[in-house]
Write a structure and sequence with these properties.
Blueprint (H helix, E strand, L loop, with lengths): L1 E7 L1 H5 L3 H11 L2 E8 L3 H7 L9 H8 L4 E8 L2 H9 L12 H5 L8 E3 L3 H11 L13 H4 L6
Antiparallel strand pairs: 1-3, 1-4, 2-3
The chain binds cytidine-5'-diphosphate and magnesium ion.
Length: 153
């Protein structure tokens, strides 16, 4: 089992797409382990996007991500980090494949609806930025036996 950080970015909240995007992860069989609505501060944006702070386009990204509240969530499941990234699709909505969230719902490079951690190190780092341990709620999903065969669990 893996956990990954998903952000439903301000455009996703403003466009009333939170339910539809979360539904995709739920339908796939992933477990929601934590979730909250919050307004990202410039400081939090710089921590989360540390690898991009020096880029020329970073000020535009910071303005976007701090402009309005977003929803942060932890999604859990087998190979969740890779599978969620693939479900989200390529960064630019105009290049993302149809069938992906960005490919189906997005048409912008910046306002691309969803963030998903890009590897195990990023997932651990980003989850710790957005959630305290007592905000993460482990539970036994009762439908697990109908999502995965006994020898796959
Ligand atoms: O989110 P992803 O990992 O697919 O893309 P990234 O290259 O790590 O960039 C992080 C985020 O910065 C993107 O999701 C876009 O919202 C934003 N971005 C931007 O505003 N302008 C760019 N030229 C590239 C990315
Ligand atoms: Mg990235």
């Amino acid at each position: 089992m893996e956990r990954t950080l998903v952000l439903l970015k301000p455009d996703c909240v403003q466009r009333r797409l939170v339910g539809r995007v979360l539904a995709r992860f739920e339908e796939k069989g992933f477990n929601l382990m934590a979730m909250k609505l919050l307004r990202v501060t410039p400081e939090l944006a710089r921590r989360h996007y540390a690898e991009h702070v020096q880029k020329g386009w970073y000020p535009h990204l910071e303005a976007f991500i701090t402009a309005s509240p977003l929803v942060a969530a932890i999604v859990e499941g087998p190979e969740a980090i890779r599978v969620v990234r693939e479900m989200v699709g390529a960064t630019n909505g105009l290049k993302a494949a149809p069938g992906t969230i960005r490919g189906d719902l997005g048409s912008s490079h910046q306002m691309n609806l969803v963030h998903a951690s890009d590897g195990p190190e990023a997932a651990a780092r980003e989850i710790a930025i957005f959630f305290k341990p007592d905000e993460i709620h482990a539970y036994e999903p009762t439908l697990e036996c109908w999502f995965h065969a006994a020898d796959e669990r």
